[in-house]
Design brief:
The protein is α/β, with parallel strands linked by helices. It has a single domain, classed as Spore Coat Polysaccharide Biosynthesis Protein SpsA, Chain A (Alpha-Beta Complex), CATH 3.90.550. It is 32% helix and 19% strand. The chain has six helices and nine strands, in the order E-E-E-H-E-H-E-H-E-H-E-E-H-E-H. It has helices spanning 30-40, 58-65, 79-89, 107-119, 146-153, 180-191, and strands spanning 4-9, 24-25, 28-29, 46-51, 69-73, 94-99, 127-130, 142-145, 164-166. Strands 5-4-1-6-8-7-9 form a seven-stranded mixed β-sheet, with helices on both faces. The chain has a two-stranded antiparallel sheet with strand order 2-3. A hairpin with a 2-residue loop joins strand 2 (24-25) and strand 3 (28-29). Helix 3 crosses helix 5. The protein is globular.
């Protein structure tokens, strides 16, 4: 499908774990793990979106090194605004929104999510994710129609197209990283995981 890409939301100013996206798990940063997982799902158009704060400037270097596009906006605490602006800059109509604190996204879930989305009629596309997404497992992503995001930002009448939630039956550990304790736990998990033995 034309005009589709993944937008990775990343910033260095986390209050609970500053600079977490560049913390290492094994020999890769969290951001590197995220980009790797997205590419494993077959998505090549990847944008790293952040704020224009000085602390986030180093993410541009990382984006270039990883072969990703980059967007820095003024919406430091407005993830929705940053997402829309990044999509507009790169002329995207459909986006997979990815959180940069989820280093072990499951590519199979991403691939299936995209397959379902691509088979929908355009009139059926607003928002698609898995039912477990809000539980913060750290393995899921979500897909939006950018027009749907725009209506949310402008507080327009909600879309008449209902969101779609898929079932995953995921029973693995929580792999999202928000705190130093999370990082220690995920690092320990990684030592014995399949990802560390490829």
């Amino acid at each position: 499908m034309y005009r589709f890409g993944a937008i990775i939301q990343a910033r260095m100013g986390s209050t609970r774990l500053p600079g977490k996206v560049l913390k290492k798990i094994g020999d890769k940063t969290i951001l590197e793990h995220v980009v790797t997982r997205v590419r494993e799902a077959g998505i090549q158009r990847i944008i790293i979106a952040t704020s224009h704060r000085h602390i986030d400037e180093k993410l541009k270097e990382w984006a270039m090194a990883l072969g990703c596009y980059f967007y820095a906006g003024c919406h430091e605490d407005n993830v929705l605004g940053r997402t829309i602006d990044a999509a507009e800059k790169y002329n995207l109509k459909h986006i997979m929104r990815v959180c940069a604190d989820n280093p072990f996204l499951e590519w199979r879930y991403m691939t299936y999510l995209w397959k379902v989305w691509s088979e929908l009629d355009d009139s059926e596309r607003s928002y698609l994710t898995y039912s477990q997404f809000k539980k913060g497992c750290g393995v899921f992503t979500e897909i939006y129609n950018v027009a749907y995001l725009y209506s949310m930002r402008e507080h327009l009448k909600p879309s008449s197209v209902p969101p779609i939630y898929l079932e995953s039956h995921y029973k693995g550990p929580c792999l999202s990283i928000d705190t130093q304790e999370d990082l220690k736990r995920v690092r320990k998990w990684y030592e014995n995981s399949k990802y560390n033995h490829k």
